[in-house]
Amino acid sequence: MHAQKSLKDYEFWFIVGSQFLYGPEVLEIVADRASKMAASFDADAHIPCRVVYKGTVKTNEEITRIVKDANYDDRCAGIITWMHTFSPSKMWINGFSLLQKPYCHLHTQFNRLIPDKEIDMDFMNLNQAAHGDREHGFIGARMRMARKVIVGYWEDEPVRARLGSWMRSAVGCSVSRNLKVVRFGDNMREVAVTEGDKVETQMKLGWQVNTWAVGDLVREIEAVTEAEVDALMEEYRAKYDFATDNIEAVRYQAREEIAMKKILDREGAGAYTNTFQDLHGMKQLPGLASQRLMEQGYGYGGEGDWKVSAMTHIVKQMTEGLPGGTAFMEDYTYDLEPGKELSLGAHMLEVCPTVAAAKPRIEVHPLGIGDREDPARLVFEGHPGKAIVISLIDMGGRLRMIVQDVEAVKPKYGMPNLPVARIMWKAMPDLLTGAHAWILAGGAHHTVFTYAATAEMMEDWAEMMGIEFVHISSSTDIESLKKELFVMDVAWKLKGI
Ligand code: MN
């Protein structure tokens, strides 16, 4: 794998606001409690990254210094603030105007209950988050900051789960800002939605999207040794069932996997694309090879779709350790039984086996598209469960992320002659309304299909990256969506990119 960090390599800085008004004893208690809270978060199974208490800040200078340090430190993926006491928020303006990392405002208090007999004015002065956090919230609103607000008692599981979810989004932000995408050739001719402004996208999301010649990939494929192929075939035999006698076709995919991985790792890239229209010198369209690379965490997009490829990688990184799997996907065809309408999702070859319900089979079949030899591929069914589909589109002047809630079901049919991996799902609120909404919003035919990420996680990510977010859910209705899209179009034009 390329030099990708794991979630535990990222730190979140817990910064507690106060002031000098209350005397040193109060500040000592605040610091002691804050470090206990940070240590407790750090040890919690819901919290996927490190949490480090970075101090109780009391002045404009301290706040500005800590924000500068957070910006500069590559381990720091975001800051979490909480006002144990009152912290006048004009002190935060200079620091916050410099902040370049994701920001979460945790609104909680150290004690769960009011101590009936003990409460006096000393207690009141120490435990002021109820109004201290309001002063802090105002400056976030006044400065129009992208922020996550989490409200609840700090020991409660829902608070920790939401904090953990937001951290995953923040890691996605860091991954995005460092992501390189290798395009083997261009995108499919005449296709609109796979186009996009790569300069604008790099300014907004950080992605470095560049092209590598297919001829160079072919040279790399030809340089792979028989011993390297033998070793990888061992791994294939351990992980998958072989439902083919055409071993040479499988060996060629192993060659392609090894060659593409070498190039991606050499370039430090986390995602790549190819297209069946640009395979000059390659014997097969990579099928098994692309499925295998996705399984290892690389992003992939077919037909040169670099946006979906990058998002696949980012979502895989964000959801490390969560069950369910994440795959490149395409709505292919529908089953329109009235009231029970379903989508059948698949691709020509390339669906990631992390979403498989059972052990995938390696099969070799002809491919009508691309004019090459029969490619080997993994064939399997996706598993049932709640999931989302994600599409990122370029609206011209801005990016829009569309997320739809879906529910995958056990595929209704066996489909014995369908030679590709497949998932069947119900789109929310129902397929007909959901597809209507998707088309109005301009969602692509390619998506990231993920059981592991949630709509909230993607919404948080979109807010951190400063892009538009549209959610199609069980409560979506067409009339309100049309109004939302119209209003957002005007708002984003006023806002500028
Ligand atoms: Mn496609």
Explain what the structure shows:
With 497 residues, the protein is α/β, with parallel strands linked by helices. It is 38% helix and 22% strand. A six-stranded antiparallel β-barrel has the order 11-12-17-16-15-18. It has a five-stranded parallel sheet with strand order 2-1-3-4-5, sandwiched between helices. The two termini are 34 Å apart. The relative contact order is 0.10.
Please specify the SSE layout and strand pairing.
Blueprint: E1 11-17, H1 24-42, E2 50-57, H2 60-72, E3 76-83, H3 93-96, E4 103-107, H4 121-126, H5 129-142, E5 148-151, H6 157-177, E6 180-184, H7 198-205, E7 208-212, H8 214-223, H9 226-239, E8 241-242, H10 247-267, E9 271-273, H11 288-295, E10 299-301, H12 306-318, E11 326-335, E12 342-346, E13 361-364, E14 376-379, E15 385-394, E16 399-409, E17 423-427, H13 431-441, E18 446-450, H14 455-465, E19 468-472, H15 478-495
Parallel strand pairs: 1-2, 1-3, 3-4, 4-5, 6-7, 6-9, 8-13, 9-10, 16-19
Antiparallel strand pairs: 11-12, 11-18, 12-17, 13-14, 15-16, 15-18, 16-17
Helix pairs in contact: 6-12, 6-14, 8-10, 9-10, 10-11, 13-15
The structure holds manganese (II) ion.
Manganese (II) ion is lined by residues 302-303, 330, 347, 446.
